[in-house]
């Protein structure tokens, strides 16, 4: 009978024999690769240490809600008419009764000695009363030191009898996609709740404001988590939970947190001044698309295209011009348009900043002294004299557009301000590239390929020149009737 033994025993003997042969041959034995980590097995110690620093924020607000119930139409003389008249007259008399509205959110203590707490602006916005509820069941009224709607942050202050447990900020810039994170908050009013997940993405733009730069996470975040902290594995706050994407209102694994590097500067200013003080460059910018990059002779689409310069602003004083592409700001590259506003806002007011721009194919360095961003800092038109009336305006057709000189009569017809200079788009051919780019009658062509134009012949000349250089599109600087500028690449058709 043949000898029999378990398969495991055979495998062990075979492995040992192979190893012996390898050693005998003088070769090194390569150890097996370590198993990949599957995240933390458990986080009770970390959660226990942090829970007391996370708080619930409850707010109360008095609102007036007018009841608007329409009076049913009943036939004249109906036995129901008297009943309805009496009922609805009584409802209308009590229609403007004030009522109290309450809401819940989350927050966390960053200075236990001074009682400083951070939360979201939308948690406390419009509130008459703000109360902080602590993990041990105690409550304290809170004062709002300051808030910022653009980053959705608010700073509160309470007066504790003894120092509160607090937490510190970490560096969100070192986060990597896949890093483990932990959220603590007040979902659906349930009190301190701990969830874990990973960093799903960074630098997310969800179109909530000019400084979007969110951390995306799949750690469960629900209603009531707003304002709560997102921790790294060292127990440092690297994000402030602020938004979710969900068709049902509950977590589907797509939550967003404000990075700590964005939040810390805003929080410091709110503590110190009660408001934010951001840098201001004084330009209107737009995205550099692939078509715009090609029309400017750029190798890749990067930077921020200056569409307009505010009169009297820092950029105007430094000599920045519409058509410049800002490539570097204060020693940092500008990968996309949306990166520039955040860079400018985070820069100290009054600082002399080096700005490198691409101007007509050449890199130019400009020194700009940043101003302070105010709500009233809006682009202003530059007043100039109007053009003289011409009886027979020059006309021409190019790139699917019928063009005309800009006369006084045409200004009135299309409601174009006197300070707008250029060539009028009188008509756009259906199906043309110009129509695809939403060029419309009444627009004014100010520049073609960054060269000013004042007549239809100038536009035709510039387009012909682009064709000689085999450019696929012509970059038009367009103005609307109010003088607001935008760049539009229109395909050059043979």
Report what the structure shows.
The chain has 494 residues and is an alpha+beta fold. Among the domains are: 172-273, Trypsin-like serine proteases (Thrombin, subunit H, Beta Barrel), CATH 2.40.10; 279-372, PDZ domain (Pdz3 Domain); 395-491, Roll (Pdz3 Domain), CATH 2.30.42. It is 20% helix and 32% strand. The protein has helices at 7-24, 44-50, 81-93, 121-124, 260-273, 290-295, 314-318, 339-345, 408-414, 433-436, 456-468, and strands spanning 54-64, 98-111, 116-119, 129-133, 139-141, 143-148, 153-157, 180-185, 193-204, 214-217, 229-231, 237-244, 255-259, 279-280, 283-287, 304-309, 325-329, 332-333, 352-359, 362-369, 371-372, 395-398, 401-405, 423-428, 444-448, 451-452, 473-479, 485-491. The model is unreliable at 1-8, 20-29 and 376-391 (pLDDT under 50). It catalyses: Acts on substrates that are at least partially unfolded. The cleavage site P1 residue is normally between a pair of hydrophobic residues, such as Val-|-Val. One of its GO terms (biological process) is proteolysis. InterPro entries: PDZ, PDZ_sf, Pept_S1C_Do, Peptidase_S1_PA, Peptidase_S1C.
**Could you name the CATH homologous superfamily of the domain at 172-273?**
Trypsin-like serine proteases
Instruction: Using the CA coordinates, give the radius of gyration.
Output: 32 Å
- Specify the CATH architecture of the domain at 172-273: Beta Barrel
Shape: elongated
Amount of beta strand: 25-35%
CATH fold title of the domain at 172-273: Thrombin, subunit H
């Amino acid at each position: 009978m043949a000898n029999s033994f378990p398969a495991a025993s055979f495998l062990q003997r075979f492995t040992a024999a192979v190893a012996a042969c390898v050693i005998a041959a003088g070769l090194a034995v390569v150890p097996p690769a370590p198993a990949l980590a599957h995240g933390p097995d458990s986080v009770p110690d970390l959660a226990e240490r942090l829970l007391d620093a996370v708080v619930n924020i409850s707010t109360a607000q008095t609102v007036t809600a007018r009841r608007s119930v329409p009076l049913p139409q009943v036939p004249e003389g109906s036995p129901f008419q008297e009943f309805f008249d009496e009922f609805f007259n009584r409802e209308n008399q009590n229609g403007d009764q004030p009522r109290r509205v309450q809401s819940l959110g989350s927050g966390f203590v960053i200075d236990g000695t001074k009682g400083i707490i951070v939360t979201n602006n939308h948690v406390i916005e419009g509130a008459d009363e703000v109360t902080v509820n602590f993990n041990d069941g105690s409550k304290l009224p809170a004062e709002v030191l300051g808030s910022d709607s653009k980053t959705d942050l608010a700073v509160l202050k309470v007066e504790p009898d003894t120092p509160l447990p607090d937490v510190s900020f970490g560096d969100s810039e070192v986060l990597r996609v896949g890093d483990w994170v932990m959220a603590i908050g007040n979902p659906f009013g349930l009190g301190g709740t701990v969830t874990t997940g990973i960093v799903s993405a960074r630098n997310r733009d969800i179109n909530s404001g000019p400084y979007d730069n969110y951390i995306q996470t799949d750690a469960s975040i629900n209603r009531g988590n707003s304002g709560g902290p997102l921790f790294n594995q060292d127990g440092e706050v690297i994000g402030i939970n602020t938004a979710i994407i969900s068709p049902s209102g509950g977590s589907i694994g797509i939550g967003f947190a404000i990075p700590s590097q964005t939040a810390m500067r805003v929080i410091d200013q709110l503590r110190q001044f009660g408001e934010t003080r951001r840098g201001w460059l004084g330009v209107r910018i737009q995205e550099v698309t692939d078509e715009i990059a090609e029309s400017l002779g750029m190798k890749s689409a990067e930077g921020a295209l200056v569409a307009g310069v505010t009169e009297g602003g820092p950029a105007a004083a430094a000599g920045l011009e519409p058509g410049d592409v800002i490539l570097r700001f204060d020693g940092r590259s500008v990968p996309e348009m949306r990166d520039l506003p955040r860079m400018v806002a985070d820069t100290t007011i009054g600082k002399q900043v080096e700005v490198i721009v691409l101007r007509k194919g050449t890199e130019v360095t400009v020194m700009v002294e940043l101003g302070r961003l105010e709500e009233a800092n809006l682009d202003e038109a530059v007043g100039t004299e109007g053009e003289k009336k011409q009886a027979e305006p020059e006309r021409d057709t190019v790139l699917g557009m019928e063009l005309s000189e800009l006369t006084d009569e045409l200004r009135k017809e299309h409601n174009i301000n006197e300070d707008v200079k250029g060539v009028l788009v009188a008509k756009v051919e259906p199906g043309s590239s110009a129509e695809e780019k939403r060029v419309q009658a009444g627009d004014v062509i100010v520049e073609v390929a960054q060269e000013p134009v004042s007549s239809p012949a100038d536009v035709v000349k510039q387009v012909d020149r682009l064709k000689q250089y085999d450019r696929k599109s012509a970059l038009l600087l367009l103005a609307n009737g109010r003088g607001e500028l935008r760049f539009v690449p229109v395909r050059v058709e043979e």
